[in-house]
Each structure stands twice: as C-alpha cells, then as structure tokens.
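tool=predict chain=A
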Amino acid sequence: MKLKKILIIEYSIIAVLVLFNLHLLRDPIYNKLKQWKLVPLPETFTELYFTDHLHLPVTITANQTQNFKFTIHNLEGMITSYNWVVYAIQDESFVSKESSQSSNLLENKQTNESTKSMEDTEQQAPEIKILLQSGKLNILDGDLKNIDVSFKMDKVSPRQKIVVELADMDQTIHYWVTGK
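tool=predict ok
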C-alpha cells in the first residue's frame, strides 16, 4: 500500500515536470509543426467589391458624370497598402459583331467562294485602357474603406467595361455600361 502511494507521487511529479517542459518548449514545437505544415495557417486575403452592386450605372453618356462606390476589406493579417485603378475598356467584340453582321449580309449576296468571314481576317487589337481614376491607401488589418469614384468620359463607345483593379494584388471587379 505504501509502495503504491510512492509510485503515484513519483508518476505525478514526472507528469508535472513533463508538462512544465512542454510548456517551456511550446513555441519551438509549434514552429516545427508549422514548418512541417501540420498546423493550419490562417487564411489571409483582401475583399474587393462594389458597395452597392444593385445600383451601378448601366448607361453612359459623353461628358456626363458617373458615380459608384467600391469597398476594400483588408483581411491580410497586417496593415496593407493598396494601389487601386479605375479604367474603361471598349468592348471591341460588341462593335465587331454589329459591323460583321451587316457586312456578312452584303457578303452573302456575293458568291460563296470569294466570301471570307470577318473572324478569319480580323486580328485581335490590344485592349485600350482609359484611365478614369486612381489612388493609394493604407488599411489596417480587419478594417475596410469605401472609395467614391466619380468620372466623365469625353467619348463613349456602344459598350464599355468599367474596371476596378487592385494593381499590386492582381484582383479586379467590373461592370458593363452601354453608351448613348
């Protein structure tokens, strides 16, 4: 009976010493497990979205002011600097489809052997980005910023894509407008 009590006390002391040592070595053990990818890492990311996506402009007129807002939400785990750019891109395919439909009607009246489709002869033109607005801001981890965008375009095409880009993060959102 006395021997049993002594063994229990000895095992208790050993257990307390082991737990104390594990507590002291907690950070090196955790870092090693992290290095071996056995510990889940926190997900870090940035949310980019239109603040009021249901009320984005759908048409655009030359020299008319367009307004919208977008939001950047920093969930990167640290203060992050964001370079944002808003630009417009003319939808060349929309213009080409309209012109190719009318030209195909004329071509179909000619002989089928001499007819070539516009798609075979048409070369891809590079996208032309029209800078509308840009800025830079720092956002604390967990915070979000709403950015008001207001712009005018001298010249509009039948259809354009308005793009918001976080330049350093390769992240974009966009919406389409029809020119009047």
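The beta strands are 45-50, 59-60, 66-75, 80-90, 129-139, 144-151, 159-166, 171-179. The two ends are 98 Å apart (CA to CA).
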